[in-house]
Write a structure and sequence with these properties.
Length: about 375
């Protein structure tokens, strides 16, 4: 591969920095992984986890409120959209947690700014310089022999920004295997320090790609199919990697289209159907290969949507929203408090739990990293999340 090709690959997001070594250490010890699902565009949490017992909900949404035939109850006052029926199977097994009212102080309604905050663990006062998994892990310890420390299956790499290590992007296993056959020089005689650094990193990346390609090529070639749109394709690929023994503690996927300013009802239903089928199918496949108990699935989105519907049968950018956490080791149920619908500010619900409390739980409890940058957000509201 020529130097120009190397630079193009790096700049295109093919290869970017990696998860911190403390994450690697914890994952090596526990054998656990996390799969991050970005709900891109900002999911409407109020029509996902529905407060059907609150009359105010129907007042705020005379056209968009979800009727009884289109929901199923998960408590005396809350229901899930019927489009999530497949996800309801995970709920019934006690493997789905609904974490309510997530948000942050000084909410920003810009897609680009707010997703950057979620990905770096920031709030309205500013974003971090590195991804939320990496910032407090700058003290490097001994490297663990992972095939890769993290792989994005949708091409998005912002959440993994770091100065250390190696992240990979893979949207197709076959394309990845073809690309790995390209050779990258381990050393350079260039007098350009920046190019020298890129080439040095490229050599390590090439070695990682080769190991992954070898495992994919020598695996049994099991072809997993999760039929749930593009998210299903990504999680099928994730299952293939896990089944092939690819050793990585972090996988990231995305489902796009949640910016429902108009004609929300049918658009949101289709998105939730794919989300429900994808996560349920992923859980089924991982149970078959005995990998569900050490896998944690987390959804996240840049913000929620306003409680008040707009004039085009949609909803506008808001603040607080619920998110899902699923896995064989998760103690399913409702966590946190649903935001009040009687104390809106500019049509927005006010968050009841800082989303960084979830990050803290993942780092301290799932990956067993007791000392982490989100320690101040630790809450006893999540104490019983794990079986």
């Amino acid at each position: 591969m020529h130097r120009r090709d190397i630079l193009n690959s790096l700049l295109s997001g093919l290869i970017l920095p990696l998860v911190p070594l403390k994450i690697a250490s914890a994952a090596a010890k526990t054998g656990r992984r996390i799969v991050l699902i970005e709900l891109s565009g900002a999911n409407d949490g109020l029509n996902t986890v529905i407060p059907f017992a609150n009359d105010r909900y129907f007042d705020l949404r005379p056209n968009l409120a979800i009727e009884p035939k289109d929901r199923f109850s998960i408590s005396n006052s809350l229901a899930l959209h019927s489009a999530l029926t497949n996800l309801g199977n995970v709920w019934e097994r006690g493997e789905l947690a609904v974490i309510q009212g997530l948000g942050y102080p000084g909410a920003n309604r810009s897609h680009f700014k707010s997703i950057a905050l979620w990905e770096t663990g920031g709030d309205g006062s500013g974003s971090g310089k590195t991804g939320w998994l990496t910032e407090d892990m700058e003290e490097l310890g001994a490297a663990y022999d992972f095939d890769a420390h993290g792989i994005s299956l949708d091409g998005g790499m912002g959440i993994f920004t770091s100065q250390n290590g190696v992240w990979l992007s893979m949207t197709s296993a076959e394309q990845f295997k073809r690309l790995s056959k390209s050779t990258i020089a381990a050393k350079s005689t260039s007098q350009n320090p920046a190019l020298e650094m890129l080439l040095t990193r490229a050599a390590a990346l090439n070695s990682s790609m080769e190991r992954i390609t070898n495992k994919l090529s020598t695996s049994r070639g099991r072809n997993f199919k999760i039929r749930a749109g593009d998210l299903g394709r990504q999680l099928s690929l994730a299952t293939t990697l896990i089944a092939a023994g690819i050793d990585t503690p972090v996988l990231k996927v995305k489902i796009d289209g949640f910016d429902t300013h108009e004609d929300q009802s049918w658009r949101h239903q289709r998105l939730l159907e794919n989300l429900g089928r994808a996560v349920s199918g992923f859980a089924q496949q991982l149970r078959k290969i005995d990998q569900w108990d050490n896998t944690l699935v987390l959804t996240y989105s840049e913000f929620g949507r306003r409680a008040v519907e707009n004039s085009t049968n949609g909803t506008d950018h808001g603040t607080a929203a619920p998110h899902f956490m699923a896995g064989g080791a998760i103690n399913g149920g409702l966590y946190g408090t649903h935001p009040s619908l009687s104390a809106l500010i500019d049509g927005d619900m006010q968050f009841t739990m800082d989303y960084r409390s979830v990050y803290e739980w993942i780092l301290s409890q799932w990956f067993e990293i007791e000392s982490n940058r989100f320690k101040e957000y630790r809450t006893d509201k999540l104490n019983s999340l794990m079986v």
